[in-house]
Amino acid sequence: MFNLSFKEILKSTNAVKKNIKQEEMLINELFTNHEEVKKNSIFLAIVGKKFDGHNFCKQAIKKGALFAITQREIKNIPQIIVKNTRKALIKIAALNRSYFKENLVGITGSVGKTTTKDMLATILSSSFKTLKTFKNYNNEIGMPKTILNLNPNFKACVVEMGMSNLGEIKTLSKACRPTVGIITNIGTSHIEFLKTKENILKAKLEILEGMKKGAPLILNGEDQFLKNLKFKDHETILCGTENENNQYLAKNIEQNNLKTNYELYIKNKFTTKIELPTIGKHNILNSLLAIAAAIYCNVPIEKIKDSLKTFTPSEMRQNIYNVKNITFIKDCYNASPESVEAAIKILNNISNNGKKIAVLGDMLELGSFSKKEHFNVGRLIVKNNLDVLFCFGENSKNILLGAKDELKNKNYNINKKIKHFNEKEDLIKEIKETLNEGDVILFKASRGMNFEEIFNNVFNKYHE
After folding, report:
1. For the segment 312-367, what is each residue's pLDDT rounded down to a tens digit?
2. Which whole-number Å values give the CA distances from 206 to 111, 113, 174, 223, 286, in the listed order?
């Protein structure tokens, strides 16, 4: 944090003080976990589903917190009382943000936020001390915590903004006030709550609410909901691989040996060749979005080029390992119809001399769309000519049905192994019995399915 005064924190949160005599305080650390509290910091009590931070206020004060921020009075401790501590957290983050005068890039979208953030942060770090969202802490608690970590040492910042409903990105954007905005795509993540892609687009466009007039919005130029957007007060910058109208365009794409090479054109002029240590069209699009933002932040093109060569995906996001001539794709952090399709294409495009195996689990938060979308994934597996499909999870029974339907309707004369499992132990046993040298195997499911447990159990057999 910057040095924030007690008085401006009190004012920004519209709080009432209790048991505080000394007001000439400067604060540069805030914690929501009482165990992390340091001397001369402050403690903010969050009320969660399974815990209540108010129960730990006294311990926080004993550890050296100057005062606590609460939404009800705790006797005999210094505190300021607010109506809602979650909203107070966002307000204090916005206050801290007001002291940061450098570029802050805000990223939202249905899929690809974290990869784009990591690519961009890798690039920016080549020129500036850069703060980025930790993991994917992009909600009403995680994003403010990132902003609170801003201090005079940082010269650039990249934050993710996630949401599950309308109004959430508006709040986050107003707090972090991006100087550059990015929307990766409009997909079906959270469609259970928003019902239509049009509503998802509306929610993602709330990123503009915190952006100053003239701040650019960088968009996926191949997304049907984004490619034609125009705004009176914001320049739109389109990125893609197909349409010449994209200001940032990837041409002559080559993918092999788990690497991608392409020629970068900016405003229809060849600029340089880009190498990515990853594959998949979605990653090309993510890199173009990151490049466009980095150019706006005045990073030299050679540094951009060199930085992308060193990019490493976050844990459980398309991590690819080759052990004992078996290629493992660990992509267990989240799953939507769009990201599963991308993962299947990657599996299909990897050269190997054995089987191509997809181990898939439920895609969550699809609501009434769930049955149809899982069914379509099953059909996609067969269309991509994969050899083995193993499914786990209640919703994934529809993946099995989709695969069988595609096999029946199209009359494929191909021997395929397709199976659904009710128990993880049975699935793990079958994978181990099926897996041989030369195979490529994908593990993909929503985070709530804990697919890393399945991956680790199988992977550890070979990685000893």
Report:
1. 877 667 788 888 899 999 988 788 888 899 899 889 888 889 999 999 999 988 88
2. 17, 16, 9, 18, 20
Say whether both 21 and 80 belong to one domain.
Answer: yes
DSSP alpha helix (H) spans, 246-362 = 281-296, 301-308, 337-349
Tokens 């130029």, located at residue? 221
**Residues 365, 342: Cα–Cα separation, whole Å:** 19
pLDDT tens digits along 203-224 = 999 999 999 999 999 999 999 9
Structure tokens at 88: 């107070």
Task: Give residue 316's identity as a one-letter amino acid code.
Answer: M
Q: Are residues 257 and 356 in the same domain?
A: no
Domain span holding position 51 = 4-85
3-state secondary structure 61-89: HHCCCCEEEECCCCCCCCEEECCCHHHHH
Number of domains in the chain: 3
Do 122 and 31 belong to one domain?
Answer: no
Q: Domain check: are 208 and 140 in the same one?
A: yes
Judge whether 43 and 29 are in contact, CB under 8 Å.
no
What is this structure's pTM? 0.86
Residue 73: both structure tokens together: 């009075």
**Residue linked to tokens 């980025």:** 132
Beta strands in 3-85 (DSSP E): 4-5, 16-18, 26-27, 30-31, 42-44, 67-70, 79-81
Mean pLDDT of all residues in 49-76: 94
| Single-letter residue type at 286 | N
Task: Report whether 200 contacts 126 (CB < 8 A).
Answer: no
